[in-house]
Amino acid sequence: MRLDELKPPRGAKKKGRRVGRGPGSGRGTTAGRGTKGQKSRSGGGVPPGFEGGQMPLQRRLPKRGFHNPFRKVFAEVNVRDLEVFAPDSVVDEELLRQRGLVKGQFAGVKLLGSGEIDRPLTVKVDRCSAGARQKIEAAGGKVEAV
Fold first, then answer.
1. Contact present, 141 and 125 (Cβ < 8 Å)
2. For 83-120, what is each residue's pLDDT tens digit?
3. DSSP 3-state of 144
4. What is the pLDDT of residues 43-52, one digit of tens each?
5. Quick one: which of 41, 58, 70, 88 has the fewest CB in 10 Å?
6. Domain 74-145 carries which CATH code?
7. Measured between alpha carbons, how far is 47 from 45 in angstroms, rounded to an integer?
8. What is the C-alpha R_g of the chain?
């Protein structure tokens, strides 16, 4: 059997209802839209969030806070995640991505201090918490800022 020979089982594919195809079809003339009104016209209808002229909810609610369009989001990696690397290895963003510890687009990598580590590593990251730096150096490694 080849891919071009595959077929869906009988009855799995139903034809769509053809509305507006004459009075004999049972769905002719108005095509199931009812008679007159905004929703019966072509191109008619109301946009999402429209409340019939009442002030919409998103405009009634008070606005709070501030969204900084220039903020930088850092990928977070914990000390316990570094256990997968061999002792005395140099760990940078590229190696973290290869191991699947960092995925997606970020402004850099921040090392956090959750967990323990027992092997000396040289870690090259953009930012590092004080606790993470302390644990890495206690294990005999060092942290370098990129």
1. no
2. 999 999 999 999 999 999 999 999 999 999 999 999 99
3. strand
4. 999 999 999 9
5. 70
6. 3.100.10.10
7. 7
8. 30
How far is it, in rounded angstroms, from Cα 114 to Cα 80? Answer: 6
- Given a contact cutoff of 8 angstroms between Cβ atoms, the answer to whether 106 and 126 are in contact is no
DSSP summary character for residue 4: G
Which of 110, 115, 108, 117 is CA-nearest to residue 85? 117
- Report residue 133 as tokens: 């730096």
CB atoms under 10 Å from CB of 76, counted, come to: 16
Identify the residue whose tokens are 């969030």: 49
Give 124's strand partners: 144
- What gap in Å lies between CA 31 and CA 62, rounded to an integer? 43
